[in-house]
Design a protein that fits this description.
By secondary structure, this protein is mainly β. Helix content is about 0%, strand content about 50%. Strands 2, 4, 5, 6, 9, 10 and 11 form a seven-stranded mixed β-sheet that branches.
Length: about 120
């Protein structure tokens, strides 16, 4: 059974930084995509950043380009999201997801989801 466990969320002031981690276990396939999504109160879930496991396309939402960096450590089966210059609009629950994607931007192509980690940015 695939498990994704996020960590690294917290509360920071605007301009601050956080690094989210997502530890993956229990999968048997190697050809998958992984991504970060977020959902703020009263808003729909949106894609933040995503990538394929073995290179290829990397996706960033326009709102985070230049501030967030997605990376992976395949040896540790861990996905990261480095978030810098945070703004209050980044406040949300952040979810890690894994799937077999033709389009890494499409959340419906992700089969496995973590429990989420809260990120709160104060002004």
């Amino acid at each position: 059974q695939v498990q994704l466990v996020e960590s690294g969320g917290g509360s920071v002031q605007a301009g601050g930084s956080l690094r989210l981690s997502c530890a993956a276990s229990g999968y048997t396939h190697s050809d998958y995509c992984m991504g970060w999504f977020r959902q703020a109160p009263g808003k729909e879930r949106e894609g933040v950043a995503a990538l394929y496991r073995f290179g290829g396309s990397t996706y960033y939402a326009d709102s985070v380009k230049g501030r967030f960096t997605i990376s992976r450590d395949n040896a540790k089966n861990t996905l990261y999201l480095e978030m810098t210059n945070l703004v209050p609009e980044d406040t949300a629950v952040y979810y890690c997801a894994m799937g077999f994607c033709a389009d890494i931007r499409d959340s419906t192509q992700y089969s496995y989801w973590g429990q989420g980690t809260q990120v709160t940015v104060s002004s």
